[in-house]
Amino acid sequence: MIITEDDARAYVAGLTDAEGMARLEQFAALVLAENQRQNLIAKATEPHIWQRHIADSAQLLENVSRETLGPNAQGPWLDLGSGPGFPGLVIAALCPNMPVVLVESRARRVEFLESAIAALGLRKCRVEGQRLERVEPFPARAISARAFAPLAKLLSLSAPFSTRQTAYVLPKGRSAAQELESLKPSIRAMFHVKHSLTDPDAGIIVKA
Ligand SMILES: C[S@@+](CC[C@H](N)C(=O)[O-])C[C@H]1O[C@@H](n2cnc3c(N)ncnc32)[C@H](O)[C@@H]1O
Asked: Which protein family is named in the record (predicted)?
């Protein structure tokens, strides 16, 4: 379990190199500074940003296959409702050679995401600054979304971006098993729930 900020940093350090850690340190500082101007993360989570947000996002990488992250996978990683960049911008900072698309409709958050992407030098990461419903569909190698929409709605909105190969990694907090149960059995069978490493009661809905 990842409980402390030290645990979280050590866990993420095991997934990346010194440059990746430097990008994430820079991103954490940008989020904390911008959080004084707009509401990006709950104030109570500021002292725990590595555990609650960065490691919580980074763990998604361990729930997709190597092929999904490799150069032959089709399409970008697609993050829905990225807000300040969780989990999508963390994924981009850890995998700077993989194309990543962040979809976010709120203009001030889009501005923040674009400035953070530029500051971190993430040339393969871009923002679709509009509602997902208006984004021209493309095949995605993986789809992530944290605190974006109820599962059935999320799957329906993301369907135009999904192929048979598309992986899903959906942190769903404590409602994961219950949300999965609410799906039709034929759809439910494609997914399973993994335990979150940052919250013993939370689950991640996964299609590998
Ligand atoms: C609760 S926040 C979660 C942000 C981030 N994923 C996180 O976990 O910190 C949901 C975000 O999704 C965005 N959003 C909601 N519906 C959307 C839509 N249909 N298209 C694009 N963005 C949307 C909101 O503007 C908001 O920033």
From this structure: Belongs to the methyltransferase superfamily. RNA methyltransferase RsmG family.
Residue 109 beta carbon below 6 angstroms from any ligand 1 atom: yes
Q: Would you say 110 and 78 are in contact if contact means Cβ atoms under 8 Å apart?
A: no
Residue 103 near ligand 1, beta carbon < 6 Å? yes
pLDDT score at 208: 87
pLDDT for 167 equals: 98
Q: From CA 97, how far away is CA 40, in angstroms rounded?
A: 26
Which 3 state secondary structure label does DSSP give 79?
A: strand
Name the residue with the closest Cα to ligand 1, atom 1: 147
Q: Is the dihedral of CA 191, 196, 200, 203 positive or negative?
A: negative
Is residue 3 within 8 A of residue 200, CB to CB? The reply is no
Q: Which fold has domain 5-207?
A: Rossmann fold (3.40.50)
Edge-to-edge strand list for the sheet holding 77-80: 125-128, 100-103, 77-80, 142-145, 167-171, 203-207, 192-195
